[in-house]
Amino acid sequence: MSAPLAAPLDAPVAARPLPARTFWRRALRHRSFVVGGVLSLLVLASALSSLVWTPWSPYEIDIAAKLKPPSAAHWLGTDSFGRDIVSLLLAGARSTILVGIIAVSIGLTFGVCLGLIASARRGWTEEIIMRFSDFTFAFPAVLSAIMLAAVVGPGMVTSIVAIGIFQIPTLTRLTRGSANAIWAREFVLAARVAGKGSFRITIEHVLPNILSILIVQATIQFALAILAEAALSYLGLGTQPPQPSWGRMLNDAQTLLFQSPMLAVYPGAAIAIAVLGLNLLGDGLRDLLDPRLARER
Amino acid sequence: MMSNPATTPLIEVENLAVRLNTSRGPAQAVRGVSFSLKRGETLGLVGESGCGKSVTALSLMGLLPDSAVVSGSIRLDGSELVGLSDADYCRLRGNRISMIFQEPMTALNPMHTIGHQVAEPLRRHKKYAAAQARKEAIALLDRVGLPDAAKRIDAYPHQFSGGQRQRITIAMALACEPDLLIADEPTTALDVTIQGQILDLIADLVEERGMSMILISHDLGVIAENVQRMMVMYGGTVVESGPTDEVFRRMGHPYTQGLFRARPRLGARKGTRLKTISGTVPELADLPAGCAFGDRCPLVEDRCRAALPPMIEVGPGHDVRCLRTDVSMADHVGALSA
Amino acid sequence: MSVFVLRRLLTLLATLIGASLIIFLVLDALPGNAAQMLMGADASPDAVRALTVKLGLDQPLAIRYLQWIKGLLSGDLGNSYVYGTPVAGLIAERLVLTIPLAIMSMLITVVLALSAGIYTAANHNKLGDVGVMSLTQVGLALPNFWFAILLILLFSVRLQWLSAGGFAGWDDGAWPGIKSLLLPAISLAVVQAAILARVTRSAVLEVLREDFVRTARAKGLGKREVLWSHVLRNAMIPVMTVMGLQFANLLAGTIVIENVFYLPGLGRLIFQSIANRDLIVVRNCVMLLAAMVVIVNFVVDVLYAFIDPRIKVHDL
C-alpha cells in the first residue's frame, strides 16, 4: 500500500501540449516511458486476452492435478485445486484492471470536480473542500474497506468504493493546486476582463491546461489502486472466489509455503510488474508532457 | 615562502578559460581573461548578464559546478589556485577570499540565527570558541551598521529587511579580514535608496581594512564611483580594461560606448529616446567566430569576424580588444563629450 | 507560537469530531440493526428485540452517538457484543503488539530512507544514485504483504532463522518480542522507505540549489559540512510532511501485515470482529486508528514550528 504522495501538492503549470508526432518521436527514445509502456501493455493484453482465451479454465477444479510442477501442459504448474496458474494469472489481471479503472474513475470524477470548484470559488467553499479532503486522508483504503465490509459485506464493489474514496483527496489537492496556478495567469485575467464566468473559464482555460498533470497523476493513482486492490483481495475484503484475483492467489499460496513456495512468487510478481509498469509510464509521461514537472524525481 | 607583498600582486589571473555544461550544450563562458590586482586595489567588472563576469568571480572562489572545466592560471600571493583540492580551497574561502552575493533575501539560511551564520567563518578559520565568536559577531554587525546588533543577534534572517540582510552578509564576508573581497552585484536587488548606503559601507570597509576588491556590476555609474580600475566583459572575453578615469574619458570599444549611451539619465530632455544596442547578447553556447560583438557592432568589418581581435593599448594601462579603434575613438565618446 | 498551536488544535478537534461522525453513521446507522446482524437473519423477532433493548440500540441515533463520545472521553468504550468483556481492555491487549510494530517499522523506514535519500542526493547522477534510485523504483512496486511472504520464504522456510509468524509476547523480556516483530516491521518499512527516500532525495537536491548553500561554501565550509549543517534542516520540512502522511498507510499496513504473520494485534482484532459482527469493537478500533493518524499529523504540524523559525511569525 503506497502513500498518496506521488502528487506534488502545488504542481506547476503544464506546458503547451506537444504536437503528436514530436511527442511520439521523443517518447520512443525515453527509456522509462518505453519500459513502462511495454509492461503496462503486457498486463492490459493479458486481461483482454483472458476474456476470450486462457490455456485452461480458471474456474475448473481438478483435484487430481493439484500442485503440479511446471510442465508443457501447465507452464507454471497448478494450485491446490488443480487450477492452471497461467490461466489464473491472466484472469486475475482482468479483476485488477477492472477494479483499478473504476476506482480511479471515481477518484478522478470527484477529485477533479471538487478541486476545480475549490479553485474557482475560493473562500469558504475552498476551505470546506480542503478540510474535508484533509480528513479523508485519515482513512486509507484498507480502513474504509473494513468499515464497508463490516456493513455491506466484502466483495468487488466494496473494494472499488473504498479505493475510489481513498483516491479522492489526493486528486482534489492536486487539481486545486494546479488550477490555482492557472487562475493566477494573465490569460485567465484577460478572460475575466472579457466578462467570462468562472464556469466557462474553468472549462475553456483551466481544465485544458492541467490535463497533462492529471493524466500523469491518473497513471500513478492506477498503480496505487492496483496495490490496494491486491491488499484487499488478499485480506478477503475484495474480489471474492471463484473470481480469480492476484491477492486471493497469494492468500491461498501462503498456506502452502513449505510445499509449493513458487505459488507465492508468481502472483506477487504479476502485481509488481503491473505497478512498476504504470509507475515508469507515469514518470515517462511526466518528463514528456512537461519537462518542468520532471525535475529530480 | 611568502613573496614580497609590495612587488607581487595579490591576485594574478592569466589566460583564464571556463567551459560550462549548459542545458544547450557546452559553453565557453570565459576565455582569455587576464588581470592582476595589487593589495588594496579595487577592480570593477562590467557587462550585461551572461557576459562571464560572475563566472570569472566564481572561478576565483573555486565555486564553479563540478562539471565546469577551468584552464589558465589564478595565483593568490604567487600560489596557484587552479586545480587546488576542495579541502585546500575551503581554507581560503571566507578566510583570505570572501564574496558577497546579489540576493540578500536568499543568501542567508532561514533556519539559522544571523549570529550563528556570522560566527561560522570565525569558528571555522580562526577556531574561536562559541562565546568569543559571538562577541566578535556582535562587533562585526555593529560595524556594518545593523541597529541593535547585540539584541538582534539571535534573530532569524526573515526578521530583517533586504538592506539589513545585505549588511549581515557583508559582516559575514568580512569576519576573517580577507585580503580580497568579491562583491557580485551587491546592490542590484535592493531599493534604490538603500543602494548608495551599502556601496558606501563597502567602500569604507575596503579602505579601512586595506582589502582588495573586485566589484561586479552591470551599472556603469556604480563602477565609475567605486573602483580604481575596470574591465568591460562581453561574450566571455574582456573587451576593454584600464584605469576607471581613463576608460570613462576615452572609451575605446564600441560595446563600452554602447553601454554608456544606453544608460538612462536624469535631466534628459523629454522625448529624447533612450539609445539601445541593437541585436541581442549572443548565446555562450554558439558564439560567432572572431569578435563576439561583431553581430551588433556598427563598425564591423570582415576582418573583425576572421579571428578574435587582440588587446591593443590605446593609453596608459588602457587596452581595447578592437581593430577599429581608429574610428571608434576618433569622435571621443566618453563622459567628457556626453 | 501559541496562537499557531491553538489554531491547529481547533482543526484537530474538528477533524476528530468529523471522523467520529462518519464512523458512527457508516457503522451504526446504515446497517439498520446491529442486533439483527449479530443473531442472523433467521432469529426470532422477539429475541432480536430483546437484544436490541439489552444493547441499548433502541435509543435514538443522536443519543447513542453522544453516549459513545461520552464513553470515549471517559475511557469506557462499552462491552463487546460477542465476548461481553470491555472493548477498552480488548484493544489495550492488542496495542502492546501493534504500537511497537508501528514504531519499529517507522524507525527502520526513517533510517533506510534518510540514508538512501541523502546518499543519492550527495552523489547526484553518479552510479550510486542511479542504482539506489532504481532499487526504490522496484520498492515502490512491491505490495508489502508479498514482500512479507518473500521474507518468510527466505528467512523462515529456507534459512529457518526466524519463525514464520506468531508473537512471542513481552513476558520473557524484550528480545523474543522484538524478534517476532522483526520481519513484519521490515516488510512494512521497505516499501514506505522507497517512497520516503525519493522524497528526501528531491528535497535535499532542491535545497542544494539554494543561494545560501553557495554562501555557506563561500565561507569555507566543505561540501559535507554544508550538507549536514545547512541543507538537511531545510530539507526536513517536506520529508516530515510525507512521514506524517505515511503514518496513515503504516497503520493500514499493520492491519495487512498482522494478517500475513498471524500476529494478534489490532488488525487481527478488527478482522475477527468483522467476522463476528461485533460492530462496537470495529467502530472503536477504526476510531482509534483514525485518531492516531490525525494526531500524528497534528504533531508533525506543530514540530514544523520548532524546526522552521519562519512559521511562528507568518502563520499566525
From TrEMBL, chain A:
Annotated membrane topology: Multi-pass membrane protein
Places the protein is found: Cell membrane
Gene3D superfamilies: MetI-like
Keywords from the named record: Cell membrane, Membrane, Transmembrane, Transmembrane helix, Transport
UniProt key word Transmembrane helix: yes
Domain spans labelled ABC transmembrane type-1: 93-282
Xref: PROSITE patterns: ABC_TM1
InterPro entries in UniProt: BP-dependent_transpt_permease, MetI-like, MetI-like_sf, OppC_N
Any one annotated GO CC term: plasma membrane
Transmembrane portions of the chain: 33-53, 97-117, 137-166, 210-235, 256-281
Protein name, entry field: Peptide ABC transporter permease
Family: Belongs to the binding-protein-dependent transport system permease family.
Automatic annotation (TrEMBL), chain C:
Transmembrane region(s): 95-119, 140-161, 237-261, 281-307
Subcellular location per the Swiss-Prot or TrEMBL entry: Cell membrane
A cellular component term, taken from the record's GO annotations: plasma membrane
InterPro entries: BPD_transp_1_N, MetI-like, MetI-like_sf
UniProt xrefs under Pfam families: BPD_transp_1, BPD_transp_1_N
Residues spanning the signal sequence: none
Gene3D superfamilies hit by this protein: MetI-like (1.10.3720.10)
Annotated GO MF terms: dipeptide transmembrane transporter activity
Keywords in alphabetical order: Cell membrane, Membrane, Transmembrane, Transmembrane helix, Transport
Topology of the protein relative to the lipid bilayer: Multi-pass membrane protein
Domain (ABC transmembrane type-1) ranges: 95-304
Family per similarity comment: Belongs to the binding-protein-dependent transport system permease family.
Protein name: ABC transporter permease
Organism in which the protein naturally occurs: Bradyrhizobium neotropicale
